[in-house]
Write a structure and sequence with these properties.
It is a single chain. With 105 residues, the protein is mainly α.
């Protein structure tokens, strides 16, 4: 083997090892999340879960009122359902922003 080939092979090996070592380094962005940010994200997650429970409840009420034929209650339930969906979207948006902000270096 010529010395140029040996040098090229050696350099390739060094690059491969360096790449492998860099891939195994821990992600420091995840370690920078403060306890305050974690609490904020957990609170947002709880709000999202609560919104989903409210939506399920409103859907049950809506189905019951449709069966009973109570048109005024059906309108009220639909209005509450739309409001719950708006709150859910807002809470999801807030959670995404908090996660994004926490991951910033």
């Amino acid at each position: 083997m010529s010395s140029a080939r040996q040098v090229a092979l050696g350099m390739g090996l060094v690059v491969a090892l360096a790449t492998s070592m860099a891939a195994q380094q821990p992600d420091t962005a995840k370690q920078d999340i403060t306890p305050r940010e974690k609490r904020e994200i957990r609170r947002d997650t709880r709000e999202v879960k609560q919104d989903r429970r409210e939506i399920r409840s409103d859907r049950r009420e809506l189905r019951r009122d449709v069966k009973e034929g109570d048109k005024a209650e059906v309108r009220r339930d639909k209005r509450e359902l739309r409001q719950d969906h708006r709150e859910l979207r807002g809470d999801k948006r807030e959670r995404r922003q908090d996660v994004k902000e926490a991951k910033k270096p």
